[in-house]
Description:
Layout: H1 31-34, H2 41-48, H3 63-67, H4 70-84, E1 101-106, H5 112-122, E2 127-131, H6 142-149, E3 172-176, H7 179-188, E4 195-198, H8 218-245
Parallel strand pairs: 1-2, 1-3, 3-4
Amino acid sequence: MPTVPTDVEAGDGTGSDDSKAAVPPLMFGDVAMQERGDASPEEIRQELRPHPMPLRGWDPVGMRPRFGTYRGLIRLLLAWVENLTGRYRQLKQIRWEQVERLVFVCHGNICRSPYAERCAARHGLAAASFGLSADRGAPADPDACRIAARRAIDLAAHRACDAADFEFKVGDLLIVMEPRQLRRLLCNLPAGGCQMTLLGLWSRPPRPHIHDPHRLSDAYWERCFDVIDTAVQSITDRILQIRHEV
């Protein structure tokens, strides 16, 4: 069983009092949020507002477009240390001939994993996704839908699936976005004989921690999806190569 790091699991939100801020009108891209019948227009607007940036957005070296947040950079550096010391060696030793379905895993199953799932499906591979703490039936994040649409990926029909509801199958390869999520998956979910790996280990260049883009800048959304694109392509190439050799 692979060993994964035990980094801090603090959230990224900082919180602020937006009660006096002007309320913007609902824009195109908010449609997915409107499907929540119990949410008022004001609640939808509040949920769609980005997190306020610490230090009033001061970012002199441009970390946020590349890593999402400074916490994202720290977690990536910690993951790199673990990778360089061999802690992820087993996660790279995939028995590709046994893989029948790619299952992408993230936190809420509304941003990273649904996009990766659709990328894999576009390559002709069987794919699914779920979240470790998903709001069952929630649509994809509006920003995810918007950025994915630029890449000809349609997430409009996606509905979030929680880990507790997911049906594992023999031949599943569970592909996780962050080391801490992999640790949680190993501890709490009896996935049987499923293989596991980190998606970012297969990107070009490798990026063992893929930080959550939820409510972050468009620049980081694009960077995040770039990493996912190259990783899914790399995995696809390996699977197709094995199938052609059989």
